[in-house]
Design a protein that fits this description.
Elements lengths: L1 H22 L4 H10 L2 H4 L21 H10 L15 H21 L4 H13 L3 H14 L4 H14 L2 H14 L4 H13 L3 H12 L5 H13 L3 H14 L3 H14 L3 H14 L6 H14 L3 H14 L5 H15 L2 H22 L4 H14 L2 H12 L8 H21 L3 H14 L8 H13 L3 H14 L3 H14 L2 H14 L4 H13 L3 H12 L7 H14 L3 H14 L3 H12 L19 H14 L5 H22 L4 H16 L5 H14 L2 E10 L5 E11 L7 H22 L1
Antiparallel strand pairs: 1-2
Helix pairs in contact: 6-7, 7-8, 8-9, 9-10, 10-11, 11-12, 12-13, 13-14, 14-15, 14-16, 15-16, 16-17, 16-18, 17-18, 18-19, 19-20, 20-21, 20-22, 21-22, 22-23, 23-24, 24-25, 24-26, 26-27, 28-29, 28-30, 29-30, 30-31, 31-32, 32-34, 32-35, 34-35, 35-36
Length: 751
């Protein structure tokens, strides 16, 4: 404690020196000079240095905060109590009153603005029974400041306690006249009159108060006053003025409840709601009044009236207020409506949701799709058309096909709705025409739109209009899909000359399209024009550039196989091998040689290859092999084996680095030999012969280099070493010896 006392003493000394410096006891220059001349020890603050606690372990005796507080409380001195003065005669009482009045007057002279002093003075005089003096004190206080509301209240309450009712009325009248915006004065005044049973006087006070148009609480107090004494006509009159001063849904709702529950007058209640709706039509919360009106009709079992109110609210109010109306309407329909009414309420709710979505994101066409589907399910064609017209008005921001895809489907759905649901074919035709005009065909086009427009005319039995649209499509957007659709329709109609002309036009515009060449040749084959089909294939393979030449060659070979021309197919394989020696071509060639090339039956004109069963084909193959010795199984297998040998030699000679392709070829050859005919010994010899040609799979290393050509280390890879490779023999012998040693070790370990 002594250390702390010294610390606070030094701190107070330093503080006084700084305060004297600030007060100017010395001039700035002189003070600065004095401080400069003083030594560092004199000017330094002698605050105690923060001690460092070395031993942080717990003390042997622990003192809690509770003990400290309890000890301080026990040592606290007793509260001072002033001595009581006993007055024994009138003179002492007079002296006591004189002394107290002098004290009060002295305090008032010093602090005349403090209303608490005036209040204590007046209450003391009231306690002495001298109401004239107390009244004088209150008046003097009001002369100083008449705007102090507590002074008026205490003054009037003093008169009321003393039983001076008229004096109290005068005080309240003066207070309410001077401070009419302080509602507490009016509340106290009316409470006094009502407590005394002066109902007429209380009503007069309320009437004076209402002339100042106070807040809603004051009007509610007036209404409740009239209700307590069952003056219902007065209540209606108060509500009329109340609604004029504070027009709100809350006020009209209270008024309507009064008419409903107190007067039981439904007609007046309806008039109140109608007047409120008319007066508050521009307010933000008028929807709440509609809901209250509808619920009033629900309670009176006027369900059609309630439903009509909800529907009128949805048409009269802006969309921002529809949410609460829809919720209330949904609840009403679930309770009192039939299935149709419930569905209508659900549709209204979903329609409101979709309206908000399309308003926020008009370019999100998925919202428009869902909105249109909702209206279609509802069955109101005019609303469906309105939604589609609004949707197609949101044109994509740029002429890029990725933006137009979903937009075009809006038009397509609109077109399908008009044709299939509304059965308005003229309108459907107009929708499709507008879409064809809108699409920028020079930049991009949509084949689906052209085809749908043309097929619509075909469904309406207008062949000329169909051909006109397809011709326009070929002129503006010559796409393969348009040609295919046009050719398909013309072939179904039997106009094969038109089909040929369309194929020629398509190939003239795009000679690289192998699919069109193939379809053209297939058409000629189906018509029995084998030579024309072959000529078309010949023209196709002579084209300098093709998008998928392998598809064209395969189709040409399948064409020759389908007509039963083994020599033609074999010649095509040979010609193809002159262009490419890919391993898959050799494998396909060998597979072709191993199978029977069966020509179509000549005596059966109604024969269809797709309808022929496996059993029927097997019987035909057997009969054909007996008739044609060159199609026997032995001959076919030998031809296939020759192809495999040629392929292996060609790959070895022309593509020595294509080791994986040679491996694939040998595996296919081995599978072929395993599935071949002949005795088991002979088959085993053939399989072993192929196995001897199989390579060994070895792991090797090769250097790696970065993009800059620097050395990046070594990497391991698998390589195939064939038996005929001379340089691989030493390595192979070493590998074989290592493999044999490893196998022997494994056998020893297992035993």
């Amino acid at each position: 404690f002594s250390e702390c006392e010294g610390y606070f003493t030094r701190a107070r000394r330093t503080k006084r020196m700084r305060e004297n410096t600030k007060k100017g006891t010395m001039s700035n220059d002189g003070g600065d000079a004095m401080f400069r001349n003083m030594s560092k020890a004199a000017t330094a603050s002698n605050l105690p240095r923060a001690t460092r606690v070395k031993n942080k372990s717990a003390a042997p005796i622990q003192i809690t905060a509770e003990q400290i507080v309890r000890e301080a409380k026990e040592r606290q001195d007793d509260t001072y109590i002033a001595p009581r003065q006993k007055i024994t005669n009138t003179e002492e009482l007079y002296e006591y009153r004189l002394k107290k009045r002098k004290e009060f007057e002295d305090v008032i002279r010093r602090t005349y603005w403090d209303t608490k002093v005036w209040t204590r003075y007046a209450k003391w005089e009231e306690g002495q029974g001298d109401f004239a003096r107390a009244r004088s004190v209150w008046e003097r206080s009001l002369d100083q400041n008449y705007k102090e509301v507590p002074v008026w209240i205490n003054y009037a309450e003093m008169e009321m306690r003393a039983g001076f009712v008229n004096h109290a009325r005068n005080v309240w009248d003066r207070a309410c006249s001077l401070l009419p915006r302080h509602d507490v004065l009016w509340y106290k005044y009316t409470h006094m009159e009502e407590t005394m049973g002066e109902i007429a006087a209380c009503r007069n006070v309320f009437e004076k108060w209402m002339k100042w148009e106070p807040n809603e609480l004051a009007w509610n107090a007036f209404v409740n006053f009239e209700l307590r004494y069952k003056e219902y006509d007065q209540v209606r009159d108060v509500y009329q003025r109340y609604a004029q001063v504070h027009p709100s849904t809350r006020v009209f709702g209270k008024w309507a409840k009064f008419e409903q529950y107190q007067k039981h007058d439904n007609e007046n209640c309806r008039k109140v709601f109608e007047a409120g709706i008319e007066m508050l039509s521009e307010e933000e919360d008028v929807d709440d009044l509609y809901v209250q009106y509808a619920k009033f009709e629900e309670k009176n079992h006027e369900y059609e009236r309630a439903r009509g109110i909800y529907k009128y609210a949805l048409t009269a109010l802006p969309k921002s207020m529809h949410n609460s109306i829809r919720k209330a309407m949904m609840s009403f329909e679930k309770q009192f409506g039939d299935s149709k009414g419930i569905e209508s309420a659900v549709v209204e709710k979903r329609r409101y949701e979709y309206e908000n979505l399309v308003e926020k994101e008009p370019m999100n066409y998925d919202h428009w799709f869902a909105f249109a589907k909702l209206e279609e399910e509802n069955g109101d064609w005019e609303k469906v058309r309105e939604v589609y017209e609004r949707a197609i008005g949101n044109k994509p921001p740029a002429n890029e096909k990725r933006y137009w895809r979903r937009y075009v489907y809006l038009w397509i759905n609109y077109f399908l709705f008009e044709e299939l649901d509304a059965k308005d074919y003229d309108r459907a035709r107009e929708v499709m025409r507008e879409l064809l005009k809108l699409v920028p065909h020079k930049e991009f086009s949509f084949s689906k739109v052209w085809i749908m427009a043309a097929k619509f005319e075909l469904r309406r039995k207008k062949l000329d209009a169909f051909r006109k649209i397809m011709g326009l499509a070929i002129g503006l957007a010559p796409k393969p899909k348009i040609f295919d659709a046009y050719i398909e329709i013309e072939s179904q109609l039997g106009n094969f000359d038109r089909c040929r002309a369309l194929y020629e036009k398509s190939l003239e515009l795009n000679p690289r399209d192998c699919e069109s060449w193939v379809k053209y040749a297939e058409l000629e084959k189906d018509l029995g024009e084998i030579e024309r089909g072959r000529a078309i294939f010949e023209m196709a393979i002579e084209q300098p550039a093709l998008d998928m030449p392998e598809t064209l060659w395969k189709a040409y070979i399948d064409f020759e196989i389908a007509i039963g021309s083994r020599e033609g197919a074999r010649a095509l394989y040979e010609r193809l091998l002159e262009k490419t020696e890919h391993v898959k071509v050799w494998m396909s060639y060998a597979k072709f040689e191993s199978k029977v090339v069966l020509p179509p039956p000549e005596d059966d004109e109604e024969w269809d290859e797709d309808e022929e069963t496996e059993e029927e084909r097997r019987i035909r193959e057997k009969a054909y092999m007996e008739k044609t010795p060159m199609e026997s199984r032995e001959v076919r297998e030998q031809n296939a084996r020759n192809v495999f040998e040629r392929a292996l030699e060609a790959l070895k000679t022309n593509q020595p680095d294509a080791k994986e392709e040679r491996m694939m070829l040998l595996e296919a050859w081995k599978v072929f030999e395993e599935n071949g005919s002949g005795a088991s010994d002979e088959k085993k010899e053939l399989v072993d012969a192929v196995d001897k040609k199989m390579p060994k799979r070895v792991k090797r290393k090769r250097p790696m280099y970065t993009d800059d050509g620097e050395d990046a280390g070594m990497e391991e890879y698998y390589d195939y070493v064939f038996p005929e490779e001379a340089g691989a023999k030493p390595n192979l012998k070493l590998l074989e010896a290592a493999y044999a040693w490893k196998k022997q070790k494994q056998m020893e370990t297992s035993s």
